[in-house]
Q: What sequence folds into this?
């Protein structure tokens, strides 16, 4: 199944707040990625299918600077493999002591037409990345190279990110509040109902601005 | 006892740093709300008496989306009850995994003349709230609706917020450093001495800018 | 050994990301100060030798407001002792519940020609400090005076800061990603190799902007 | 509604593991009290209705040793009020830096026929309490008196304990794994189905001990 | 490569303390599994090759009690697949809010001749497991069934456990201090040198018991 | 000033719970060492003056196994310097990822007549240490050698241990609840009043065992 143009367009207009409400109504209470924030709030909205990359802790004898000479290194290969329009989501076990990427890798992803990046680890060159016209979410700036704490092990497998399950193909949506994962199956319906909900909330907000109470709303 | 106009005016001019010093001199060492920050540093200074709202963890069978149809729901009732000029202070047990409010509720509070909001939980629609001319402090943006983790249980009872005791009627003061709780009883005296302290510190700062040492100050 | 002008100049041009890579190549994996961030990203780059100040937890009978009348108080003495061009690095045990300094002390340090400040505790008057043309890194704004939680005990001894060992004379370098500690001994070599590495990365970035893959880089 | 003898008896025979499974089947995923453990694993099983006591952070001017001379002090009054057969459950905000009780108070509760105690704070005189024939769960031993960090504020109100909502009258069940809260309404049914589940699991365990696979069980 | 009988025997006689020293000498500083402890200190020593099982966070629509009817469910399949003599090592992201196994599954593993279990999550039926003659390490007792927070996703892939990288086939050694992971490649040499080190330390200990100083040892 | 025999004897009979109450009455609220527990609850009570040892984070180039060949290494020298009857208190920044000592060093301390050990780091060979007739408190068992995370830097300086200030010469008292630091100056008076308090509490406990209420006590 692929993300339809209509659903993509709808998801780009609704907030992550609205989407968590729609998911909650369907019994899904744990799909907001915890402890990540946008590096560049001015970037376009993030919408796209998840392409995942998984790290485990580094080991000194395996994770030395020579590894990147191998064109098959999973991190480098993942970066060259994410399809345009998809979102690279990285599982760093919530450990921001080291970076999971930097200016060059993020620029390459943007050049390749990737929709954006979400990581529960750190990112280096944060100021440089924040200046890109590219939506990026992370646990915070962190200069140390990934090899200091992270070993890229495989990609496009189900992962954890920010305490949330992410399956390849899930729809990733980000705004200034953060990132929500919308499972594939209900994505079309969730998008449609979210648009409807926001229409109603726009009306309520106008009433509230005009002085109406929020009791019973 | 109510907050006098003079004390309110004085508290609006002094920093939370100065107030913690005055409280420390009176043996009160734990009245700075930990882990909250202003959503909008450009908002006016926060000063007002505390009106409290308490949440406990949510339970799936009790906390469903239908609850808001009840006009007596404690969160909604609290929002319609905070007197103008007072500050809504929420106890979310420091849990920012879900929001304790969003754009509509915060706008309603602003419309009602409430002085501001402090929560040790999250807030959704953070960018929208940050654009209001209304001082708001929270643990960070968080999209999930409050029902995902929080159950509003009662209001205007003593609570914990950010590790600090807050009694209804305590005076809440916020600036860019954060929020301090000034107990009712010594509030007038604390305000007066704080103004005096700042007068002296302004003098010291000028001396320091002119090259004076800070030894023995 | 003192920091040479050339090394200082080189270190001011390279990123902390690059420096952590150079240190990693030399087997040094834990020299990025965790959980501190710049109060003023617009300030000049931070470079200078470390002058350290150590705090232990406060004790109510020892740490009262009268202590600052003593011109030999270690915090005040340290502030008047840091040589111009050096960086004051403070060990607050990562505890940001109280400030380790404020507007007046930081202004005095700037007036004295100190190169900047790094603390793993909090700082009060954060907005005021952020407006100074002076690089300052801390765990976050925190209004309570240092005596509430911190007792200055000695200075220019080896300390921990943000989980990292800092020896007096180590070179402290900060940019928007954060702060890295470069040990004295390899500092000249690290600086030289870092400049070289950035030259290469500038080339790679241009290639990447032109569409080149990052496989094997 | 009160806890029937039959349900009480059934709950005393089944494990908290089984009860969490029964609650999970009913959509209740968050009723196991986190971070508490039995002080005396040799004590009888804990079963009884919850009688709650709530603490907020202490304030130095309010929480001095003189407060206990007041016979209406909420902690002391709560201890004398819990009905025999019920369980005192205390909300200490998960803060074990101070005790929420000690040998004398716990002995008094035992003498009064209270069924047991659960607190997400600490307990002092832990060795003495562990020797009582009385089931007690806490976050760990902690010598400082409650006034150092906790202010008893009210009782028999809904509280949080170990991240879980506890309503007065909920059924509290504890074994060596820890404590689970069984809401009143489904308690009879949960107890009945738990007994049934354990009957089946006893059979499975015998099969497994005899060499059977657990695939599809 | 397989674990030789001689190395297995040697590793069963040396402490995890000694093994971390040998690994440290080889530049491997992060192979002690953090935050796990033995459920039964009286059990035999743990030695065996790692067979890994990975969990990600649960999702309510996927992780319902019906999943165990599927004989291909990864957790159940893993338990039936671990070869005798190997150790099941589980990656629960350090989250002990739910169990990663209980009495029946652990008994099945013991019956199958598995060497032991290590998990950085919780275990239910902890008292029952502690009575088995079977070495088991976990983050603590935790009653809730795994589906409440954990989704078994795949096995025999590299994982993280307690902050440490674990590759299938690494040698897992446990004693009362905890668990260390010895990578395959240097395992024979590490075992041999560890035996030698302990011979020397036994001598030193006798000297120390006889009154000798530890300066320069 | 030295610890009198009478005070030492008194302190060995009263509980840490009682001592925290006496300190609280004197305005000292933060002298209970957090997050340490006795390795051997069967050991004699711990009483003695503090002799401190401070660690900072390790650096790979400085902290290699060769350092212990230096008889002036601060850890080894401290162990040979603690006067008999005093307590070695170690500041490990609360980091238990590595040991701050093991069986040989602790045995040496016991042989030298040292009164006991308190560390907020880990200890290796925990089972061996627990079997000594020697009171030892730590954050938990931890196999990795100290050099993996800790660098011994100086001794007999004021330190932090478990969040508490410890000055050389302070009196350290431990029981099964944990460890409290009694400052030198009021130690005699605190000991005397603690004995008196326990006499009263023994009376109250007898009354309570006989059925008396705790209201107003």
A:
């Amino acid at each position: 199944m692929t993300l339809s143009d209509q659903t993509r367009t709808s998801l780009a207009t609704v907030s992550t707040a609205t989407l968590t409400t729609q998911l909650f109504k369907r019994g899904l209470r744990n799909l907001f990625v915890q402890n990540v924030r946008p590096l560049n709030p001015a970037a376009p909205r993030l919408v796209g299918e998840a392409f995942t990359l998984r790290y485990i802790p580094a080991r000194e004898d395996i994770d030395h600077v020579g590894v990147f000479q191998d064109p098959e290194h999973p991190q480098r290969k993942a970066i060259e493999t994410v399809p345009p329009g998809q979102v690279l989501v990285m599982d760093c076990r919530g450990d921001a002591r080291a970076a999971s990427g930097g200016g060059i890798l993020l620029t390459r992803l943007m050049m390749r037409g990737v929709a954006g990046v979400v990581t529960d680890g750190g990112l280096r060159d944060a100021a440089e990345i924040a200046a890109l016209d590219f939506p990026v979410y992370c646990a915070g700036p962190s200069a140390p190279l990934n090899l200091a704490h992270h070993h890229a092990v495989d990609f496009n497998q189900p992962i954890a990110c920010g305490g949330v399950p992410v399956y390849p193909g899930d729809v990733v949506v980000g705004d200034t509040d953060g990132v929500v994962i919308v499972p594939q199956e209900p994505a079309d319906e969730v998008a449609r109902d979210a648009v409807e909900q926001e229409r109603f909330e726009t009306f309520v907000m106008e009433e509230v601005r005009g002085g109406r109470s929020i009791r019973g709303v």
Chain D is about 30% helix and 20% strand. The helical segments of chain D are 5-11, 16-25, 74-81, 103-111, 126-130, 187-209. Residues 187-209 of chain D form the longest helix (23 residues).
